[in-house]
Amino acid sequence: MNNVFEFPVDVSHLIKKRVVIYARVSTEYVEQETSYERQVLELAKSVRQNKDYNLVCVYADKESGRSTNRPAFNQMMELANTGAVDLILTKSIARFGRNIVEVVTIIQELRLKGIEIYFEKENLSSIDPKMDFTLSLLSAHAEEESKQISMNTIWAFENKMKKGLSTTNKMYGYSIQGDDWTIIEDEAKVVRKLYWGYVNGDSYSQMIQSLFEDSIPSPSGNPRWSKRTIEDILHNEKYCGDMLLRKKMNGRVVQYDNLLAHRLNQYLVKNHHAPIISKEIYENVLKLRKERTTYERKDKVFKLSEYAYYFYSVDLKKHFTYVIEKHKGKYEVPVLKCKSSIGSMMLGYSKIGQGVLLMTQFILDNRKLVHDHIANRIIPSTLSISNQLEVLYEGIDYIAINDQINRYDKISTLLTRLNRINQVKEFLSNTFSNARQLVANPSIENFKSVYTKILITGFNVNLVTSVSNDISDTIPLDKYLIHSLSIPFIHKYKENTLIFNFYIC
């Protein structure tokens, strides 16, 4: 008889760390373009030279450091949240976050997930015990440096304004070169049209429609003007030749030095440039605006509705707005309204909620059906995703940096989806748990916890639950449809039917 001995083998040296690279440059300076390429090349080289590393993805943002728009960074964090990353490699602390406070927050968040961040310039790892002390020192230094930069900028503008020099470099109706303002007559005609229209009693909607019918694009090039753009033009003293400098106080000044804030002045430069409209018309419009304003907006905080950007009209290519309709002051009806240049649509919110609850109860009553759908429709796609990834990785080291970044963008999307599918057991558990909460409490927050997106086309309400959290505005393929149900309702005094379709994709 053979003797069989079992003993453990350490294979940790065979497991490579899954590494992603993050690079960021400011677009404010031309020389940063070369820095962008250099950052990616140097970081990628260091990863490939390390036999313990496996380069999974590269992320790069070409944004101002003060910008909140960092799509690549958000993509990276989404991939990290799926558990597909062990190490994030970046050039420096300054390149990673907009400020030290943000960096500390991200480090703490990723530590909980077991993800390390390595800052090459500082030769620091986020799991190094010295990291927290170093960041506290850098934080104090960064705050002082930021304060100094802000103060220098403020004083530079202060001196410029004292001399009556312009701080504006672009304005509809004018071509501005330094302190030389030249009227652009085609645009000036539009400005005069708006002022005279307002004086004659035209509403904003009438002005917008008139400009659209005359094929006059907005200052940003859109075919339809916005009310806000027209308001800004009608409230701008520069169109009558004057120039008010420092219309708004900088909030950061108050934060750094309250005494300085009290010493900041506004400056009115009379007859600075050629006017497009007379002062009499401008003052008349200001007077009329004050008379026609029915509410005070000062110091009012506008909060984004919890219903915003969730219910989407596929037909009108725009999101619905949740509003409360008051019928002759007798009763209130919550509705979803959508209006665009293509057309308009309105649906009663109570019927939408009724259909969602019925579908949610169906999910809870048919768990096996949902499990089978995942097993037959979702999990088999992992092979296709793996094949796509293999093609995208092939030869990626030998193409131009920008082409690499574009390819890595596709790789990131596929990796995120693949890893979320691999966590489908947890996904199903969360979906059923959230569904129970939704039935018990049909709030909009609980809607969102079960259905990634609700896409409406005609009288079809498509409830989409995405394994990869994809928020695409496209209705999924029929193969991802699990169940449909219908609810009768009255639309414009006629009997109709709302069809609810449930997709998992």
So what's the overall shape? flat
Oligomeric grouping of the chains: single chain
User: How many extended strands?
Assistant: 18
Helix content: 40-55%
Strand order of the largest sheet: 11-10-15-16-18-17
Task: Calculate the terminal CA-CA distance, rounded to whole Å.
Answer: 54 Å
Uncertain segments: 9-14, 28-33, 250-262, 297-302
Task: Note the main sheet.
Answer: 6 strands, mixed
SSE-based structural type: alpha/beta
Number of domains: 3
Q: What Rg, in angstroms, do the CA atoms define?
A: 29 Å
Strand content: 15-25%
What is the overall pLDDT average?
A: 82
| Helix count from the secondary structure assignment | 17
What is shown here, in short?
By secondary structure, the protein is of the alpha/beta class. The protein has helices at 32-48, 71-81, 93-96, 100-112, 131-162, 185-199, 204-213, 227-234, 251-256, 258-263, 279-292, 349-365, 367-378, 381-393, 401-422, 424-440, 444-450, and strands spanning 17-25, 53-62, 87-90, 116-119, 124-125, 174-177, 180-183, 243-245, 267-269, 311-313, 318-319, 321-327, 331-339, 344-348, 453-457, 460-465, 481-491, 494-504. The protein has 3 domains: 13-128, Rossmann fold; 155-292, Putative Large Serine Recombinase, Chain B, Domain 2 (Hect, E3 ligase catalytic domain fold, Alpha-Beta Complex); 350-504, no CATH class.
